[in-house]
TrEMBL record:
Pfam families per UniProt: EF_EFCAB10_C
Protein name as catalogued: EFCAB10 C-terminal EF-hand domain-containing protein
InterPro entries: DD_EFCAB10 (IPR049760), EF_EFCAB10_C (IPR056587), EFC10 (IPR039879)
Domain EFCAB10 C-terminal EF-hand residue range list: 81-108
SUPFAM superfamilies according to UniProt: Dimerization-anchoring domain of cAMP-dependent PK regulatory subunit (SSF47391)
Domain of life: Eukaryota
Organism: Batillaria attramentaria
Amino acid sequence: MATDEPSCVPTRVDQAKEYLDKHRVMELFNNITSQLIYARPGLSLFLWQLDEPKQFIIDVLERLQKSKATQFDLPCLFDESNIISIFGMLDPTGRGFISHKQYEEGMSQTAETMSEVL
């Protein structure tokens, strides 16, 4: 006789989700995709060239593997141009300085953005 109670046996979908979560696979793919979109390998300002996204992804994975082993030179999308851009948004009048409150807000927004990317 069949029962209406849910089965305690995890389904293949549940197992797959657990695996992806445990190994942070989706975070890795999101990070690689973000880096790919940010770098746009093969893109020229003057003409479109043959993109090399596959080689770029291989290079990113190799850098990640190396940085994981050495705990040095972790890949990052955030660079000095981003700092200048944020500062410019926080200092729209061009005074050359911002308040401590503006600094905290900028750092808070940056941390939120970076956590979404990574």
